[in-house]
Write a structure and sequence with these properties.
By secondary structure, the chain is mainly α. The chain is built from seven helices and no strands. It is globular, with a radius of gyration of 21 Å.
Length: 150
């Protein structure tokens, strides 16, 4: 068993073996564009306020909030970009745990969906590239075989 990840039966010795054990060299991603960081921060800030959390510390103090106060400040001002998982957790929290004074539930949920849609369209989260890869990897259509859209 690999000590760190529990992926293979024997310790990995060479780079080829490492790849066969499930390790993949991580490719350094290009930095997130300033405009994308600011957009993601603005989406989170707007959604936080719509959920009734007027101040970051109010959200951070809420039971079950998925991030620290300083982290939210950094996200909202565009200093840091949340991972996609962290972004999803924050949007879900704001949409499902509003405070008194929040927008009506239907409006808040619609705003959360709009924030998700906008963020997933940004290059920061590589979703467009993932869909392009899916399209390229689709097997070619052959006679008697049709793709069905479900």
């Amino acid at each position: 068993m690999h000590q760190a990840f529990g992926l293979c039966a024997e310790p990995c010795r060479a780079s080829v073996e490492r790849l066969s054990c499930g390790h993949v060299a991580r490719k350094k991603l290009p930095p997130v564009a300033n405009e994308d960081r600011r957009t993601i921060g603005a989406l989170l800030r707007t959604l936080r306020r719509a959920a009734g959390y007027r101040a970051v510390q109010d959200a951070a103090a809420a039971t079950g909030f998925p991030a620290a106060r300083q982290t939210i400040y950094a996200y909202e001002r565009g200093g840091l970009t949340p991972s996609l998982q962290q972004f999803l957790e924050l949007v879900e929290f704001y949409a499902l745990h509003p405070r008194e004074g929040a927008k009506p539930e239907e409006d808040l949920r619609a705003q959360a969906v709009a924030a998700l849609t906008r963020a997933l369209a940004l290059p920061a989260y590589h979703v467009k590239r993932a869909y392009e890869l899916i399209e390229r990897l689709q097997p070619p259509l052959t006679e008697g075989r049709r793709r069905t859209g479900r």
